[in-house]
Amino acid sequence: MKKLEIRKNAYYDSVTLMIISKEVKKLPGVAEALVGMGTDLNRELAGRTGLDAEGFEEVTANDFFVAADCETEEVFSDVVAKVDEMLNKKAEKSKSDYFPPTLEGALKIEPDLNVAVISVPGRFAAEVAESCLDRDIHVMLFSDNVTLEEEKALKEYAASKELLMMGPDCGTAIINHVPLAFANVVRSGDIGLVCASGTGAQEVSSIIDQLGGGVSQLLGTGGRDLKAEIGGIMMKLSLDALARDDRTKVITLVSKPPADEVAKQVLKQAKDTGKPVVVCFIGGDPAKIEKYGLYAAVSLEDAAHKAVALSKGQKPENFTSFAMGEERALELARAEAGKMAPGQKYVRGLYTGGTLCDEAMKILISKLGHIYSNIPLAPEDKLEDARNGKSVEDTFLDFGDDEFTVGRPHPMIDPSLRAERVIQEALDAETAVILADCVIGYGSHEDPAADLADAIRQAKGLAEKDGRYLSVVVTVCGTEGDPQGRRATQAKLEEAGALVLPSNAQAARFVQLIRNNR
Question: Which residues have CB under 8 Å from 279's CB, separation 6+?
Answer without folding.
Answer: 252, 253, 267, 270, 289, 294, 295, 296, 297, 303
